[in-house]
Amino acid sequence: MKTVNVRREIVTSVRSLIIMTAMTVVPEMLVQLGYSKIYHNISDYGMTYLLLSPLLFLAFSDFLIYFLHRGLHHRLVYKHLHKPHHSFVNTTPFAAFAFHPLDGWTQGVPYHLFAFLFPMHGVMHLISLTVVSIWTINIHDRVTLGIPGVNSAAHHTIHHTTFRSNYGQYTTLWDRLFGTYHDPARVVPLWGAREIREGSLRQGLVTVARGFFCLPFCSARMPPTGLLMATVTL
After folding, report:
1. Backbone angles phi, psi at 50, to 5 degrees
2. How far is it, in rounded angstroms, from Cα 85 to Cα 212?
């Protein structure tokens, strides 16, 4: 991976994150003012709902993001909003937030919308948003865990090389249902994408831990790790 491309990913991500953060001030203020369904007492909805709500959160956002992401590939929208992100074909974790600000904000709408439609504990909502950020970083990384039905780094790499497949965020369900699923095992050799390494769950956890520990010392010349992008987001 050329250092110049990594630097461009970093610059684009930092710039976009600053603007996207400003764009989320209004919905976050509405949450703080009590207009959302965020709650703070576990007893309000019980422990069972507390534990199930993150799964509902992921299912809801996975469904909406598939269609939002696919819509961003429409010819009337793509060149104006989503094309900057796809200028990074062989991505690293630093490309995770390298969007046109309006593009990134649009794909983040489901996460905010959920809080206004469904009850969710405040801490659980924060944890879920953190997981979302880590996942976004991971699918732009080299390591894929190869879990059946999960939209992994391998699937998203194919999305960046074919441009017309694997729009899903967390699962491959909606791609399979709507005919946009491409199996990485079959597509990678044809498109000449960079090597995608399969790793075990243990390797994936090590990648996450290594990312946290190396934050103050990471160099853009180092091989990508699952959380190098956290140097920008923290």
Report:
1. -55, -45
2. 25
Q: Does 198 score more than 50 pLDDT?
A: no
Beta bridge partners of 39: 121
CA distances (Å), 225 to each of 98, 140, 143, 180, in order?
A: 17, 10, 8, 28
* Per-chain mean pLDDT for the chain: 80
Work out the burial of residue 149: count CB atoms within 10 Å of its CB; fewer than 13 is exposed, 13-18 middle, 19 or more buried: exposed
- Rounded to whole angstroms, how far apart are CA atoms 202 and 226? 13
- Band (pLDDT 50/70/90 cuts) for residue 189 is very low
Query: Among 229, 153, 147, which residue's Cα sits nearest to residue 196?
Result: 153
Which uninterrupted H or E stretch holds 78? helix 75-78
For the record, the structure tokens of 12 come out as: 């684009």
Q: What is the mean pLDDT of residues 136-145?
A: 81
Strands 197-198 and 143-144: parallel
Task: List the structure tokens of 42.
Answer: 């576990």
Collapsed DSSP state (helix, strand, coil) of residue 144: strand
pTM of the model: 0.76
Q: Residues, the chain, total?
A: 234
**Two structure tokens written together for 166:** 């694997």
